[in-house]
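Blackboard transcription, Thursday session:
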Amino acid sequence: MKVAVLGFGVVGQGVYEMLRTCPLFEAGPVLVRPGKADAPFKVDDIEKIVNDESVDAVAEVMGGVDVAYAYGVKALKAGKHFVTSNKALVSAKGVELDALAREKGVGFLFSAACGGAVPFLHNLELARQSDDIEALGGILNGTTNYMLDRMQSEGLGYEEALSEAQALGYAEADPTADVTGLDALRKIMLGCAVAYDRLPVEGLYNEGIDSLTAADVAHFQGKGLTCRLLAKGGLAEGKLYAYVQPALLPADAPECAVKKNFNMAKYLGKNSGQIVLMGQGAGRYPTASAVIRDLECIRFGQREMLHELCEYSKAENDGCLCTYYVRMPKACVAEFELAESEAQGGAVYAITKPISVKAMHEKVRALRKGGMPIFFAEI
Amino acid sequence: MKVAVLGFGVVGQGVYEMLRTCPLFEAGPVLVRPGKADAPFKVDDIEKIVNDESVDAVAEVMGGVDVAYAYGVKALKAGKHFVTSNKALVSAKGVELDALAREKGVGFLFSAACGGAVPFLHNLELARQSDDIEALGGILNGTTNYMLDRMQSEGLGYEEALSEAQALGYAEADPTADVTGLDALRKIMLGCAVAYDRLPVEGLYNEGIDSLTAADVAHFQGKGLTCRLLAKGGLAEGKLYAYVQPALLPADAPECAVKKNFNMAKYLGKNSGQIVLMGQGAGRYPTASAVIRDLECIRFGQREMLHELCEYSKAENDGCLCTYYVRMPKACVAEFELAESEAQGGAVYAITKPISVKAMHEKVRALRKGGMPIFFAEI
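(Written on the board underneath:)
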């Protein structure tokens, strides 16, 4: 199988190298946009790839939505299998790409878009065919897990932890999507699409770690609690929920054993029970290995990761009740129904009574608009 | 796809139920041996299944080697796909069954034979196609993990823990294969066959937990150490190693977060890095879900889990050096090169200097023949 690669950045170079050395595949042309790094078999025009009859499959690892989508459409229309590691693309355009792939009888797989090397979507798709997936989620963003681990184990501040993650290549120059939870949200959107045939694009909530301070970390550690950023999706009374928010966990929770930039993805099958998968969620070869895995699955006949019934949908997070640990200015205390609270260093740390995910996220959003600095996490 | 089931015990009933309710499959006849429990579509003669042209695949979940092998051969010769959860069968006869399946162009998959619901062999096989697997293993036996967890968290003695495991259905009436590490050894044999095309049948060593006492557990806990039974396989300087032995781990080791009858299986890929999979290693529906997963993979075109080059082989464990924590009678102390030792309650607890797995297992075997009660674990 000859595979063209779109993009020659960190992951693209890994994919190309694995294609070159694996006897199952042949490395095809690499699309590099004008002005970008040089590559072997470099082409600068997608038409040269889609018109190349020797190319069987296209691996998209360039990122972004609009251009990647246009190229994906061209590749599929030309009858080429299409695999991608691009979670922004699939969360925005997955249903269209899947319909086109089905029409053309070619494969459209994207397990590298969620969890890097962790074979989460692949196994979730296999499981959902014969099992009822009751819930899914976990630690799906390695950048923030690295930062949390460093803040908690070394007492680093948020900015220090971010700089370190950037220096190590774990965080991008613009880390917004990672630190706000948007990246993890896109991944849980894909998980819901695979598990439930519904790709939620409305009613979603994501809270990241960009409000967390070293003082917060010290306070929570004093209570024996460790912070992790968790993505959650599932069905509750037939309603789809999907959200991302920090959680404070006791030290012996399995999530606390997930260190550095590792991911931990889980699903709960009615028959299988809880299945947990861990590994590196990003990086050149880990992510490339997932792209190659999708190509292997296409080689032995798999064609779809989304099923024919899959459609864009909305999440309903008003039925998900959580108890939250909140750090806020004294002026905000009256805004919440609290079970307990404690003043510390000019702020108040408090535990709410159960409140829905939707209500909590919207309340904090409104208070922040009024200039109130708040951190909150499920407990 | 119509699937016949061989065996109607704990797992067979789960497989039948999942076949009956999953729209991808049709439940075919169930072979129940004379005198055994009743079943729907019961037949008592394998010929009725292999001669039934409407049957596409056979799922063997009856256990044992000789009869299961004879039936597997008949099914494959009749051109039916063959899936099995039977680790004793595949570790003894996997190469022959695979060759026959290849000759007939049908599928032979057995991911349920290692790890129950944990999709270990499936993902290992996908990974090894494009990656170098540097090592594999983990906690592959749920019975002993349950017993260790109970001995360590509740202070139960060995016999109490075993009785409890039997009462809960986690251990069989004859628990020998589990508690001696033979069951875990068979699973690591299968892992090596999938990863390296070599199914080791000689030079293997397995030490279980049947020498562990409540006093040992208390002693190790006093040192901050938790016992787990680990299976390990891999290549070291081109030589295949494969063995099972207890290990004493610090409390924050990820293995210590594996509770009750759960399994934790790992592989280290050169490209993917460390991949860890956890879930229930046994039980009706967890194991049935793995049998069904294999059938799904056959449905979309996968045919093999062992590759054509796979052959019976031997393990060489003389190059694997470990440091061991040993509990022994004073009379044995001179038999080991020790780094430190401590007398306690009539016995000696000691830490050896590095010694090969082969030398250690053989030394203890010889001393036990002389009546010496010894427990040892890697540290």
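Lecturer's comment: The longest strand of chain A covers residues 225-236.
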